[in-house]
Amino acid sequence: YDLPAADSGPDGIATGPDGNLWFTEQIGNAIGRITPEGEFARYPLPVADSFPTRITAGPDGGMWFTEIAGDRIGRIEVGAGRPKADLAVRLSAPATVREGEEYTYTVTVTDKGPFGAADAVVTLNLPRGAQVTGAAPAADPGSHRVSRRIDALGAGQLRVFHVTVRAAQRPVVVASATVRARTPDPRRGDNTDRAVTRVSRR
């Protein structure tokens, strides 16, 4: 059976009390499950680079595993559903700038857990008329949108990136940032944020 995620590095495998096979992904930093019918489920670990190896069924009905790099013992509920990651994005910018002046948007993405987020994408929607001038991810052709992909974000981790622009010729500019991921997010109210900047004449 081919694993759903490339470069997973499977190692330990054991039968769970649910009759399925559970295995560790050393490189993928996740616990996997495969049914006798060949259906996969994948659970990214909360802490990045844990390097899980051995796994076994515990007397409490859970699956227990070792984390070599993390110096920890982990446990996962056998009846666990799909892993979830509560992502949040925060956007900040100066309150006021002068017309034609350069200023910077700061985008912060945080994973509040309980699991890591896979294939997250954060998008900054710039105000019309703003010109990207800094060393930032390239704007999408024909739009005022800047996107960055985060392949893996562990629970409790954050990523920050900056976009420098030249102020548009209008009194007030509004930008927004959004984040989404392949891992389900149980609370999406903090997946979007916006920043308002007033532009004064020179």
SSE class: mainly beta
Q: Uncertain runs with pLDDT below 50, 5 residues or more?
A: none
Could you give a short account of the major beta sheet?
Answer: 5 strands, mixed
Total strand count, please?
16
Secondary-structure element series: EEEEEEEEEEEEEEEE
What does this structure look like?
The protein has strands spanning 10-15, 21-25, 30-34, 40-44, 52-57, 63-67, 72-76, 85-92, 96-98, 102-114, 117-125, 131-132, 145-153, 158-166, 172-180, 192-200. With 202 residues, the protein is mainly beta. The protein folds into two domains: 10-76, Thrombin, subunit H (Beta Barrel), CATH 2.40.10; 85-200, ntegrin, alpha v. Chain A, domain 3 (Immunoglobulin-like, Sandwich), CATH 2.60.40.1510. The protein has a five-stranded mixed beta sheet, with no helix packed on it. Strand 3 and strand 4 form a beta hairpin. The protein is elongated. The model has no long low-confidence stretch (mean pLDDT 88).
Q: Descriptors for this entry?
A:
elongated; five-stranded mixed beta sheet; 2 domains; four-stranded antiparallel beta sheet; 202 residues; Immunoglobulin-like; mainly beta; single chain; Thrombin, subunit H; 16 strands
